[in-house]
């Protein structure tokens, strides 16, 4: 009897083109992650008012705060577990948490069910979105990291926009429940199929990059060696390392604006007697421009650097919120939403690229997790700040407050962050980062 030698799997090679199939699959999975959020953003504030009779803004925003806090905690565990146990198991567990969410929203007899569903959604988002980010960074290596993050975030937030529009259409024609939430059920089922059957583990790509890692020649990262403890990674990403920590704080303000918009914008737009479809369109403009813009800004940061895009984007966000706060009708709000999307597109993928630039491949998953803890706490901070200010001073005052916070964040980045984009290629052919290339 003749035995054939089983061929071993091909050695990992870093690069976007070299890993195009897996990268594209992960982009599709991340679009489904974003769709889970988009299915509810237009509908839940209206559901709170029409079916549950909630009028206090702070109480209505509890579901956004619950989502943000839970997602922030899940991000930390996503980063730690993906470094320790691998990326794919974390991704699969995250999607299991998504399955009950649309069913709970459809059946919810009171607002507590909605809050509980958003706790599960926060776990889902933290585990799945963090993991797809880390997996894409693993695959592409340092040369096109900004482009990779732009494609990732464009898919996620483009799906938020499309799902917001679809949910608004379904709600207007078929009612607030159950039709809009059937989208989420379909997204979760498809994502489980793709993640379980077709996504491959990427941790070996990070190990490969670590084996060829070249530190900066200017000495800025000499203190960031490979063997950092979880506590050291958290301290550097949160407070000590100037680029990592200022990125974390800017990320918090970005999602403060998103959390505020999620809970407050539909209520603000409803003061002008707009239809559900018009409110859905206005809300979709922000993540739609944000998502599409990242197709440009991610790659642009690979060419011109990170810092100026982040600083300029924060300034534009502050201006956009000023326009929204000063407006009372569809036209002004539409202009402000487009500007807010442009500013966020400049910042969002670029902040992730900063984390990838600075963090060592061995602890990069943990650094991404800690950064996303800070960033996604912004949902809760925005919801609470927006709710309290809106209750005390009105909806427009809450948007003015967010504009002031965004301007302060721009100043912090301008003063504290240094340029993190590598000035020369770190990893290049002919070895193409294959093992034993020498």
From TrEMBL:
<feature type="transmembrane region" description="Helical">
    <location>
        <begin position="377"/>
        <end position="393"/>
    </location>
</feature>
<keyword id="KW-0813">Transport</keyword>
<feature type="transmembrane region" description="Helical">
    <location>
        <begin position="333"/>
        <end position="356"/>
    </location>
</feature>
<feature type="transmembrane region" description="Helical">
    <location>
        <begin position="309"/>
        <end position="327"/>
    </location>
</feature>
<feature type="domain" description="Major facilitator superfamily (MFS) profile">
    <location>
        <begin position="23"/>
        <end position="421"/>
    </location>
</feature>
<feature type="transmembrane region" description="Helical">
    <location>
        <begin position="252"/>
        <end position="270"/>
    </location>
</feature>
<dbReference type="InterPro" id="IPR036259">
    <property type="entry name" value="MFS_trans_sf"/>
</dbReference>
<dbReference type="InterPro" id="IPR011701">
    <property type="entry name" value="MFS"/>
</dbReference>
<feature type="transmembrane region" description="Helical">
    <location>
        <begin position="90"/>
        <end position="108"/>
    </location>
</feature>
<feature type="transmembrane region" description="Helical">
    <location>
        <begin position="276"/>
        <end position="297"/>
    </location>
</feature>
<dbReference type="GO" id="GO:0022857">
    <property type="term" value="F:transmembrane transporter activity"/>
</dbReference>
<dbReference type="InterPro" id="IPR020846">
    <property type="entry name" value="MFS_dom"/>
</dbReference>
<keyword id="KW-0472">Membrane</keyword>
<feature type="transmembrane region" description="Helical">
    <location>
        <begin position="57"/>
        <end position="78"/>
    </location>
</feature>
<feature type="transmembrane region" description="Helical">
    <location>
        <begin position="181"/>
        <end position="199"/>
    </location>
</feature>
<feature type="transmembrane region" description="Helical">
    <location>
        <begin position="20"/>
        <end position="37"/>
    </location>
</feature>
<dbReference type="InterPro" id="IPR050171">
    <property type="entry name" value="MFS_Transporters"/>
</dbReference>
<keyword id="KW-0812">Transmembrane</keyword>
<feature type="transmembrane region" description="Helical">
    <location>
        <begin position="114"/>
        <end position="135"/>
    </location>
</feature>
<dbReference type="InterPro" id="IPR005829">
    <property type="entry name" value="Sugar_transporter_CS"/>
</dbReference>
<dbReference type="GO" id="GO:0005886">
    <property type="term" value="C:plasma membrane"/>
</dbReference>
<protein>
    <submittedName>
        <fullName>MFS transporter</fullName>
    </submittedName>
</protein>
<feature type="transmembrane region" description="Helical">
    <location>
        <begin position="399"/>
        <end position="418"/>
    </location>
</feature>
<dbReference type="Pfam" id="PF07690">
    <property type="entry name" value="MFS_1"/>
</dbReference>
<keyword id="KW-1133">Transmembrane helix</keyword>
<keyword id="KW-1003">Cell membrane</keyword>
<feature type="transmembrane region" description="Helical">
    <location>
        <begin position="147"/>
        <end position="169"/>
    </location>
</feature>
């Amino acid at each position: 009897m003749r035995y054939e030698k089983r061929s071993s799997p091909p050695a990992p090679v870093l690069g976007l083109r070299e890993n195009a199939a897996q990268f594209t699959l992960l982009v599709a999975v991340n679009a489904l992650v974003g769709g889970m959020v988009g299915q509810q953003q237009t509908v839940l504030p209206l559901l709170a008012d029409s079916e549950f009779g909630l009028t206090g803004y702070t109480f209505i925003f509890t579901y956004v705060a619950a989502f943000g806090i839970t997602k922030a905690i899940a991000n930390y565990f996503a980063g730690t577990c993906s470094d320790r146990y691998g990326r794919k198991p974390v991704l699969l567990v995250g999607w299991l948490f998504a399955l009950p969410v649309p069913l709970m929203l459809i059946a919810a007899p009171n607002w507590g069910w909605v809050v509980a569903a958003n706790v599960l959604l926060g776990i889902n988002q933290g585990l799945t979105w963090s993991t797809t980010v880390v997996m894409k960074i693993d695959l592409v290596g340092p040369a096109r990291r900004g482009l990779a993050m732009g494609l990732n975030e464009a898919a996620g937030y483009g799906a938020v926009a499309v799902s917001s529009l679809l949910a608004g259409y379904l709600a207007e024609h078929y009612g607030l429940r159950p039709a809009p939430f059937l989208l989420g059920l379909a997204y979760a089922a498809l994502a489980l199929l793709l993640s379980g059957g077709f996504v491959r583990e990427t941790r070996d790509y990070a190990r490969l990059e670590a084996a060829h890692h070249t530190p900066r020649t200017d000495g800025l990262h000499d203190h960031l060696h490979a063997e950092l403890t979880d506590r050291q990674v958290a301290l550097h990403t949160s407070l000590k390392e100037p680029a990592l920590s200022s990125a974390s704080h800017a990320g918090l303000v970005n999602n403060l604006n998103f959390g505020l918009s999620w809970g407050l914008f539909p209520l603000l737009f409803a003061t002008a007697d707009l239809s559900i479809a018009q409110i859905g369109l206005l809300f979709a403009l922000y993540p739609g421009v944000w998502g599409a813009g990242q197709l440009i800004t991610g790659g642009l940061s690979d060419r011109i650097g990170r810092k100026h895009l982040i600083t300029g984007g924060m300034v534009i966000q502050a201006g956009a919120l000023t326009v929204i706060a000063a407006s009372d009708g569809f036209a002004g709000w539409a202009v402000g939403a487009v500007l807010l999307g442009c500013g966020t597109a400049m910042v969002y993928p670029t902040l992730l690229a900063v984390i990838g630039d600075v963090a060592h491949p061995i602890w990069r998953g943990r650094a991404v997790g800690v950064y996303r803890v800070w960033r996604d706490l912004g949902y809760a901070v925005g919801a609470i700040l927006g709710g309290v200010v809106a209750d005390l001073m009105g909806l427009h005052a809450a948007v003015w407050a967010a504009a002031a916070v965004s301007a302060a964040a721009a100043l912090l980045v301008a003063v504290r962050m240094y340029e993190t984009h590598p000035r020369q290629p770190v990893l290049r052919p002919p070895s193409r980062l294959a093992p034993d290339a020498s």
